[in-house]
Amino acid sequence: MILVIGGTSFIGMYTIDELVRHGKKVLATGRNRKLEPMVRSLGADYVELDITNEGDFSKLPTTDVEDVILLAALLPANAKADLVDNENAADYFQVNCIGTVNVLEYCRKNGIKRVISCCSYGDTSNSWGKGYAITEDEPRGFKFTGDHAMYVISKNAANDTIEYYNQQHGMQGASFRFPPVYGVGPHGTIMVNGKPYKSGIQTFIENAEQGKDIELWGDPHIKRDIIYVKDVARAFRLALASDETYGLYNMTSSTQLDLEDQAQAVIEVFGKGKGSRIVYRPDKPNNTPSFLYSMEKAKRDFGFVPKYTDYKTMMLDYQKELESGRWEVLVSADD
Questions:
Q1: Is pTM beyond 0.90 here?
Q2: How many whole angstroms separate alpha carbon 20 and alpha carbon 42?
Q3: In this predicted model, what pLDDT tens digit does every residue of 264-290 receive, in sequence order?
Q4: What phi and psi values does residue 262 have, to the nearest 5 degrees?
Q5: Is the CB of residue 113 less than 8 Å from the CB of residue 170?
Q6: If we measure between CA atoms, which residue out of 224, 185, 220 comes closest to residue 318?
């Protein structure tokens, strides 16, 4: 049995689907009971669990769990604190650090060796835009300001705690370092410094569908290395199947996608024949950085090579998943 903690998350749902379709028995946990029917419809069992509550882990089985995927976390996109009147540093540590310890203790006590967690690509933000693919050996370097700082700090601490359990208790923990993950999910609106904003991808798609122009602010050739959610789900499955999986892994497409190409792909897929155009606004600020990550370690250790490496392929599948209606409950969920 595979235990997916945080299974009602966006990535969690796709991971459950991937594992079940490949013959794995899955037990998922979450805090959003509205999503329990969807979890069960994918073929998994469900337990309500708060990772910050040590007592909740008594609800979980003590035998027959092979591996654990830990996706439950507090992320800036879901955090409502504005960092001025409402500082949430303690919340990040409670969820991302103490929660991780609770998961690791559950695993240690029950003889579960492998845990795969997730973390932020922001821990190497000082190395972005330097013209080389960042490897897992890149020294940490990031800004200690902004709404992502405490997320990065707490996730770094969680990763170090996983490595402590690896060395102290003989576990085989790993962590996937994610950039933005694209796919159909409940992220049409995200929180930035505690305030809701429509996400960039959602804005592009809605404008294209309505025949409105898509504005590109600043440099239209900013290049980012993102990943599609189905690749993430497949990577989890492959990582669980390999005895070599251990430590930190970049989890990207290992391809830089051009902002202008992204806008054009959205128009071709979602706005075909509707008159949407790209409008260039170099006068408007765009602080989006360019970055690229190496995927050689994941390829070497568990044979993972991304399938979705161009934006049009991503958008065609995104459209197909939207039109299928199978993720409708997830899209509208307020987790």
A1: yes
A2: 7
A3: 999 999 999 999 999 999 999 998 889
A4: -65, -45
A5: yes
A6: 185
Which residue in 258, 281, 262, 278 sits closest to 212, CA to CA? 278
SS3 state of residue 277: coil
The answer to whether the beta carbons of residues 246 and 172 sit under 8 Å apart is yes
Handedness of CA 248, 251, 252, 254 (dihedral sign): positive
Q: How many whole angstroms separate alpha carbon 245 and alpha carbon 134?
A: 19
Residue with tokens 């208790």: 169
Element of type H or E holding 10: helix 10-21
Query: Which tokens hold the place of 280?
Result: 């260039």
Count of C-beta atoms within a 10 Å radius of residue 167: 9
| pLDDT per residue as tens digits for the range 199-255 | 888 899 999 999 999 999 999 999 999 999 999 999 999 999 999 999 999 999 999
Distances (CA, A) of 144 to 4, 7, 138: 31, 30, 18
Cβ-Cβ contacts under 8 Å for 208 (sequence gap 6 or more): 214, 266, 267, 269, 270, 271, 274, 276
Residue 25 has pLDDT above 90, yes or no: yes
